[in-house]
Amino acid sequence: xxxxxxxxxxxxxxxAVEGIKNIVSQAGYExxxxxxxxxxxxxxxxxxxxxxxxxxxDKATREVIQASKKLKIIVRAGAGYDNIDLEAATEKDIVVMxxxxxxxxxxxxLALGMMVYFARNGYNGKAGTELKGKNLGIHAYGNVGxxxxxxxxxFGMHVYAFDPYIPKDVIENDGVVCVTSAEELYSICNYISxxxxxxxxxxxxxxxxxxxxxxxxxxxxxxxxxxVIHEDDLxxxxxxxxxxxxxxxxxxxxxxxxxxxxxxxxxxxxxxMGAQTAEANINAGIAAANQIRDYLENGGTTFQxx
Length: 306
Ligand SMILES: NC(=O)c1ccc[n+]([C@@H]2O[C@H](COP(=O)([O-])OP(=O)(O)OC[C@H]3O[C@@H](n4cnc5c(N)ncnc54)[C@H](O)[C@@H]3O)[C@@H](O)[C@H]2O)c1
Prior knowledge:
Blueprint: E1 3-8, H1 14-26, E2 30-35, H2 40-47, E3 52-55, H3 62-67, E4 73-76, H4 86-91, E5 95-98, H5 104-119, E6 135-139, H6 143-154, E7 158-162, H7 168-173, E8 177-178, H8 182-188, E9 191-194, H9 208-213, E10 219-222, H10 231-240, E11 245-248, H11 255-261, E12 266-268, H12 278-298
Parallel strand pairs: 1-2, 1-3, 3-4, 4-5, 6-7, 6-9, 7-8, 9-10, 10-11, 11-12
The protein binds nicotinamide-adenine-dinucleotide.
Nicotinamide-adenine-dinucleotide binds at residues 79-80, 100, 103-104, 107, 140-145, 163-166, 195-199, 201-202, 223-225, 249, 272, 274-275.
């Protein structure tokens, strides 16, 4: 019997597990659940006789993949998949997929939430500012970027976007102004929302040159990835611009310096929490189960990443 294993050291919420289990059972497959496992050895044991695997941030290393005897598909319930050894999977003809977009609204709400929180001085009772009428630049118009744009328009912000891989009319049909370079975006907008992936091209690409272009007062919002920021440049910008503020879902490696020198000009979530909503959890889990069923029954490979 085809066996679908859900292996999550940090479990899905129960409603998501229930949803996955229903899809798996209706398809006539066996459902297996391994949660909060103590070590990789337990994961390796469990994966040995699984045909399909759903994981979250769990590490599907070469060792795990090689231990599987009949694995055909691994789905990362979430957007990033750098926790999976793609090369090892491909060598064994195992299809790897992610579930893009399922947490995009959750991440976008956090981005806007951090902006409001900061604009209102952390709700300290003193007069703050409004988002309405301010220019927001969305750096990458993917799943999260699109949701940030839609919510920001509800706030009455003027929304601009730069994404070289998305056609201009797609962006402009959403009532967003499409610009043709990151430099242009940063020159126009006081608020910048980072929604780029971490790639060879984007890692450390948010540098001194770009950040200095943001008009005063500057607010950089990062729900994308810590690695895209050039942290030495970030510190230089903090030193040279008193108006510069950084809000992020990831504390930078230079956090201690910032705490010491620039108190009151940043906010970092205590732990990455962009996708931490019940809805995102359920959406991603159910999408993963449906993708497995589609692959095993119809050979569907939407969202295959290897
Ligand atoms: N904070 C969180 O918990 C959380 C959750 C989900 C996603 N994320 C991160 O948010 C970011 C966006 O996620 P997404 O789901 O929208 O991804 P996505 O793949 O849907 O969109 C990424 C967009 O980036 C564009 N892009 C790629 N390279 C670019 C470049 N050099 N310049 C400008 N645009 C470029 C692509 O064209 C695409 O439209 C990613 O970094 C992802 O890891 C964070």
